[in-house]
């Protein structure tokens, strides 16, 4: 079904381009640009900011705040090259690198307990995850443009492929006010998720301001819809109670292989990388670009 | 930040439309269309196909899990578009489209042999599906060209959705029997954006037929959910459940102070928002009338 849709869409575009009778003003161009994007349509599956305080006598207080994670945010810069078949229709290829901003999710649980001497003890579990991503985006697009004196408004629609990494910093702390319950501990880990391609679609509208025949300035608003399901995960740093134990981790503790279908079995080898269900991470964003274009 | 991007975008659109010196061929149009969308970039959170087996006497277990990505933007859709071309190339389009969604299902089957405290055999299944019917409103900027009989065009705009999600669950256990329920998620607006690219074949000055490939990126965070039907072993037992079980309110921020020694089940539960994806890629065919 997907292939049929793509084929129909592709045929439609090629027919439109080839059937044009006004094959004038064919030209190559190249641009350099800088932009910033904000996340939209994020996922809630990575958790919420939550604080739960379990008091004495069954009372509890809960505060939760929704977090929608989409890693398509941050500063980005790149180049585009393109070719116009005629006055209105062209193909564009963009290479864009994004330096991602971070998203933080915190979870705190506090348990209060009273002993027979009315002494109150507290146990606290604190977990914080910080997500970010750097990603190279490759965007082949179809361009439709019009011409007015100094301005040339245009629209671009195309595919986006992403190559990059997702980073996660994890802090997990346990604090006991009652030494009989256990000793306090801190764990800090850094994870990298990589492998595979991010895939999606992108669209943009913008306008160039033609300084002269060769040189244009342009501004563009773009939407990018992409999800990325990494193939591998690695713990790159692990610190327990202030001591770096990264080198002591077993293969099954520090390497994860993500698959769409997995089997957990009592016969799995504990010395092999652990297998986990693949996770799609959204990279949906809306952004603004400014750039300079040279017509070749 | 999003507002600061949308404002210049709106200004850009109107500036290019209104300051066009080539203000000919201004016209209204309307069309009817029908299409089909397939899910893309679904979430890996909601559904699984799983088979679990365990035998306590031999300490053997095996669980096979297959992720079923969920995106609720799949299914047949039909609607109308109206629009106005400021000039030969630039216009504004408003689409109203209704989607009859297909269900996506995940099934989990478990078989186990226990030896402690007494030898026993268990078999259970858990099947759940999600589907959604949704009305989409899509205001877009339209850029088109004219090439004799064909008018290729591109549309970029926002998508707003109003509708419901249906969540059907069936459970079976060889000892405890079966139960079924249907939960509806509703309230609030779905938001996103839509891209379309197509070509109109102009039959004459008045009529054209068109084909359009479209992509919609949208998520929906419902405000409420209600269990509308519940049965156990074929008998309706919805009235036996409390408001806290049947109704849930979803909010961006939730604050609760409760006393578990005196639980209150008379009011709906509260949870933070759940985000359902509606990303889809589709094809539309339509008939266009120029006024």
Can you lay out the helices and strands and say which pair or pack?
The complex is a heterodimer of chains A (296) and B (291).
Chain A: H1 2-18, E1 27-39, E2 49-54, E3 59-65, E4 74-84, E5 89-100, E6 103-114, E7 120-145, E8 151-176, E9 185-194, E10 198-210, E11 215-228, E12 232-240, E13 243-244, H2 251-254, E14 255-259, E15 261-265, E16 274-277, E17 281-282, E18 285-295
Parallel strand pairs in A: 2-6, 14-16
Antiparallel strand pairs in A: 1-4, 1-18, 2-3, 4-5, 5-7, 6-7, 7-8, 8-9, 8-10, 9-12, 10-11, 11-17, 11-18, 12-13, 12-14
Chain B: H1 2-18, E1 27-39, E2 43-55, E3 60-70, E4 75-85, E5 90-101, E6 104-114, E7 120-144, E8 150-173, E9 177-186, E10 190-202, E11 207-220, E12 224-232, E13 235-236, H2 243-246, E14 247-251, E15 253-259, E16 269-272, E17 276-277, E18 280-290
Parallel strand pairs in B: 2-6, 14-16
Antiparallel strand pairs in B: 1-4, 1-18, 2-3, 4-5, 5-7, 6-7, 7-8, 8-9, 8-10, 9-12, 10-11, 11-17, 11-18, 12-13, 12-14
Keywords for this structure?
heterodimer, A: 296 residues, mainly beta, elongated, B: 291 residues, 8-stranded antiparallel barrel, 2 helices, 18 strands, 7% helix, 68% strand
Structure write-up:
The complex is a heterodimer of chains A (296) and B (291). By secondary structure, chain A is mainly beta. Chain A has helices at 2-18, 251-254, and strands at 27-39, 49-54, 59-65, 74-84, 89-100, 103-114, 120-145, 151-176, 185-194, 198-210, 215-228, 232-240, 243-244, 255-259, 261-265, 274-277, 281-282, 285-295. Chain A contains 2 helices and 18 strands. Chain B has 291 residues and is mainly beta. In chain B, strand 4 (75-85) and strand 5 form a beta hairpin. The model of chain B is unreliable at 11-24 (pLDDT under 50). At the A-B interface, helix 1, strand 3, strand 7, strand 8 and strand 10 of A face helix 1, strand 2, strand 3, strand 7 and strand 8 of B. Strand 15 of chain A pairs antiparallel with strand 3 (60-70) of chain B, so a sheet runs across the interface.
